[in-house]
Amino acid sequence: MSGPPRPPTLADVAAVAGVSLSTASLAFSGNKPVSEATRQRVLAAASSLGYAGPNPLASNLRRGRSGVVGIAVGQLSSAFRDPAALPMLDAVSEVLGAAGMGLLLMADDDAHPRLPLDAVIYDNCGRETWHAYDDLVARDVPLVVVEGPCWPGTTFVDIDHRRGSAALAAHLHDHGHRRVATMTLEASRPQREREAGLRQVFPDAHVIGACASDLAEAQSLASDYLATGPDVTAIVCQSDVQAAGVVLEARRRGLSVPGDLSVAGFDGVDTPWLDLSLTTVVQPLADKGRATAHAALARIAGEPVADVVLPVELRVGGSTGPA
């Protein structure tokens, strides 16, 4: 009993077209001159056999490339809930796609698959150590780290967290605030830098606690804190999502924002669940994504790549006012 028919191969195409296998291959690749008549004969033979062309992945692998860049984004389930992550991912995908590269989303756990990746982007998953780092370095896979640890052998892409937080703190100080609390992100380099900028102006700022950039988590943390009746006039958050959670909880408790309590954030993302604009530090999310992708492409090409630190900008909204 015969099995299913096998798919046509390039050798079949060459036989039907009456050319050598190497000539048929060149007709598809375009790497060397092949007469237009020969090329058309090869393509006609391929069409008659239903042959779509050489497997681009196999071709890439023969050249030592997979055509795929991996990006570690922490927990995949939460990567698409953070509004600050999406513009960055969109920009990375846009640049890599224009270069004919694919993008593979990866979790940052240690049990990573040993995939044939051309480069890996580590997008501030909050971890200071990553088991995959040693393996990737050993395999000479180019690494681009976004807002994370400055690991040896990597290209570093960051924003000026400290300067932005210091500018925000100065804005509050100019409006008479002296008793300030802060809600931080979980331990990471951005968390430390943003807190350091705040403490340039408010060295005694009280830390409410740390949580992810998650609306429900931030509101719960704010609820516990505001229930104590704290003697503060402003709360500075390390993300706009956190700040939105604080605003919602303050209002639930009958507090006016900014009349009774000023609230500020960081990132510059849209907060459609609020009816006021947040005072925030705007980071160039799309520019950060493009810089990251271009760094990855340059590393793949073996070109030297300098670290990148992008500027940020204070944007005063309706969530802060005089103390």
UniProtKB/TrEMBL annotation:
<protein>
    <submittedName>
        <fullName>LacI family DNA-binding transcriptional regulator</fullName>
    </submittedName>
</protein>
<keyword id="KW-0804">Transcription</keyword>
<dbReference type="InterPro" id="IPR046335">
    <property type="entry name" value="LacI/GalR-like_sensor"/>
</dbReference>
<dbReference type="InterPro" id="IPR028082">
    <property type="entry name" value="Peripla_BP_I"/>
</dbReference>
<dbReference type="Pfam" id="PF00356">
    <property type="entry name" value="LacI"/>
</dbReference>
<dbReference type="Pfam" id="PF13377">
    <property type="entry name" value="Peripla_BP_3"/>
</dbReference>
<keyword id="KW-0238">DNA-binding</keyword>
<dbReference type="InterPro" id="IPR000843">
    <property type="entry name" value="HTH_LacI"/>
</dbReference>
<dbReference type="GO" id="GO:0003677">
    <property type="term" value="F:DNA binding"/>
</dbReference>
<keyword id="KW-0805">Transcription regulation</keyword>
<dbReference type="InterPro" id="IPR010982">
    <property type="entry name" value="Lambda_DNA-bd_dom_sf"/>
</dbReference>
<feature type="domain" description="HTH lacI-type">
    <location>
        <begin position="8"/>
        <end position="63"/>
    </location>
</feature>
